[in-house]
Amino acid sequence: MTSNKITKHSTFKRSVYTEIVINAPIENVWRELTNFKEMPTWSKSLQKIEGNFKKNGQTEVHFMDNKGKVGIYKHELIHFEEGKLFGWSDPFILGIKDNHKYQLEKISETQTKLIQSDEANGFATLFMGNFIMNFFLKSYTEFNQTIKNRIELKN
Length: 155
Hints:
The protein is built from 2 helices and 9 strands. It is of the alpha+beta class. The chain has one domain (about 5-155): START domain (Alpha-D-Glucose-1,6-Bisphosphate, Chain A, domain 4, 2-Layer Sandwich), CATH 3.30.530. It is globular. Pfam families: Polyketide_cyc2 (PF10604). It comes from Aequorivita antarctica. InterPro entries: Polyketide_cyclase/dehydratase, START-like_dom_sf.
């Protein structure tokens, strides 16, 4: 079961929300989600995170765009709870500030909900917001399904 949507909050603010239920314990999902060494072998978007992977840690996040080009973005992990959550909120393009989170919720001993969300704020959102959010929605939905398939094959 999945629930994916884009919300327009105002002229300069939009958000995307994606979720998927993975048939695996939360520990297994966290381990795969943070296995940045193997991530480039299966993820078409998030390639890896390098740096200080902890609360307020300075990191370099490697993302691949839809043309196969990898961009490296410096982010401080303002959202971090070991085994459950990580994310950042920084300017990323044309002054648009994003607030990206990967969050896990334990449903049962054998099921975990992966929530991937993002928020875009800034003047350029007026012109680029729909394009960016649609790209994020497609990318996050694909990432979520791919990691689900990968984890469930291992279990």
